[in-house]
């Protein structure tokens, strides 16, 4: 895609699932990628592997600084770190609720906060946050996850409108159900997983590579007029 060759990008949540798929796709497109997770991802794909906790302000700042130092600068972020908790809302421990929000919302905020001064100083920056179809509506048994992803969407919108004239583009990628270890665990808890799959008009779940393709597009020059957009990639789930 136009504009990805040589682009320097930090990807969080890069050890597996959608984050890892984004690392792979961006590397294929010629981008220089710093892959970050709680422990440095050992996949041999990224130019740089970093370890840190995005919920910790010092760690988030360090990840951005180490990515910029190791890549010779920083042009973009893909913020894919996230966790979930499933079960009845009234049975959820408040600490579990806080942790889900902390990883998705606080982690996204802290990484953006660390990178935005650099982006504004250079007059350009590209941010892709990871929301969900749960950003757009309720999800039974996933109250914390839905709350977190709704917050990520509106955080992204706020950053987008605040920094657009400084040359920063921020958009929220909202995937539907995607074949990752997280989805496998969720489906194992459902009485009839096939029925949920059939609610998708396309008749299947997404592959991580399909979501990564959308993330690559949003980082590319082709998405130059996307600002603060919730970009839904869900096989028709929210349209039906």
Characterization of this structure:
With 240 residues, the protein is α/β, with parallel strands linked by helices. The chain has one domain (8-239): Rossmann fold (3-Layer(aba) Sandwich). It contains seven helices and seven strands, in the order βαββαβαβαβαααβ. It has a seven-stranded parallel beta sheet with strand order 3-2-1-4-5-6-7, sandwiched between helices. The longest helix is centred in the middle third of the chain and has 29 residues, at 94-122. The mean pLDDT is 94.
Key phrases:
alpha/beta, seven-stranded parallel sheet, Rossmann fold
In short:
The protein has 240 residues and is an alpha/beta fold. The chain has a single domain (8-239), classed as Rossmann fold, CATH 3.40.50.720.
